[in-house]
Prior knowledge:
Layout: H1 10-39, E1 42-45, E2 50-52, E3 54-56, H2 69-92, H3 95-117, E4 121-123
Antiparallel strand pairs: 1-2, 3-4
Amino acid sequence: MNFKFLKKNFYTYSLFIFCIFFLDRITKIYVIYLNEEYLGEQIFSSKFLNIYLIWNEGIAFGLLSFDKNNFYNFLTIFIFFIILVIFYLSLKSYGLKKYSLLMIFSGAIGNLFDRIYYKAVPDFI
Length: 125
């Protein structure tokens, strides 16, 4: 049986995706922990960088944030299909472009996980 998708770099790419997803989860859990236990929503503020926890129920930068449950579910399904397209594009690309798409894919999977688990994505930078 010949599996084309199990190339010699399959495990390397899978480990790369898992590491980015894991870093995404750890940072979000840590910021949520700081928000709940110690500092509140304003976690860190400086001249160049602010870390402020915001629960994003829409798409990028809170666009399309509505209280409608059906719209939220449709948006989540739409994002899932976009993730599949990004994955397909990463399979067809090579070199730096492949790793860039895999990083986007890993972050998108992390956001999809948050969207399902928390019903919102914790954004903080």
